Amino acid sequence: MTYLFISDLHLSPEHPRLVRGFLDLLIHYQHKQTQLYILGDWFNAWIGDDYSAPWLDEIVEALKAFNQKGNRVYFQVGNRDFALNQVFLNKFNGVLLPDTYYLNISGQQYRLEHGDALCTDDISYQRFRKIIRNPLLVAFLRRTPLSFRTKLVNGFRKKSHSDKQQKSYEIMDVNEQAVIGALENVDALI
Question: CA 118, CA 61: separation in Å to the nearest integer?
Answer without folding.
Answer: 34
